[in-house]
Structure prediction request, 258 residues.
Amino acid sequence: MPERKPLISGNWKMHMNHLEAIQLIQKLSYALDHADYAATDVSIHPPFTNLRSAQTVIDADSIPIALGAQHCHWEESGAFTGEVSPAMLAKLAVSYVIAGHSERRQLFGETDENVNRRLKAILAAGMIPIMCCGETLDEREADQTETRITTQVDAGLAGLKRDQVGAMVIAYEPVWAIGTGHTATPADAQAGCALIRDRVRANFGADAAASVRVQYGGSVKPVNVAELMAQTDIDGALVGGASLEVDSFSRIVRFRLQ
Ligand code: PEP
Prediction:
């Protein structure tokens, strides 16, 4: 079975200007060391306006943190006011792009169909998608968690190749746990991540299922990360609020020492 190196990703959402971003990245680089990067991949996902500054500081100081984006359009260029293309992100040395975050689904009308188009475009541009899925509280209470995750994973990954899926990242993010302080229990987080891996196995085979990295996201903090990461099917974390401070994010990256 291939070794799945954990990936801890910081989703900064709409926080930090480019000067604050430079400072945070530099402080993070002082807080983390080679043993951390050897054990765990780290990505940060600042707002678009910070990507060039972030790329410059990461490059100049040879910081082994991967640059990520929070979203993109699926077209390469065109009349799409306000949007950014995968080619533009790739040119900035972006490695990971989040697609289908619940905030984009809920606030900006993103659908499974256009998440799927986005994934194909991100892959075609040579970057790694982090596809988010997860149920709302209403869906959980109506016993629809499994159906919701299954639909999102099946539709989001439709038409991708086995090796593409095997190399990507899928984040299980129960919507009720995002930004609320209500983390899923390790058992519930494990169940969601295992279901995602099962869907990948059913649709793309055992090799893709063994290598796809499945993150958990939803109020991950230094105090709960170690127990979450100890679960069989959890290969990393997508971290919102706690990624905005050096101390909490670096302690999450160092979950193995908690
Ligand atoms: C997120 O933005 O994907 C997220 C999980 O946020 P938080 O960690 O703040 O719940």
Observations:
- The first helix runs from residue 18 to 31.
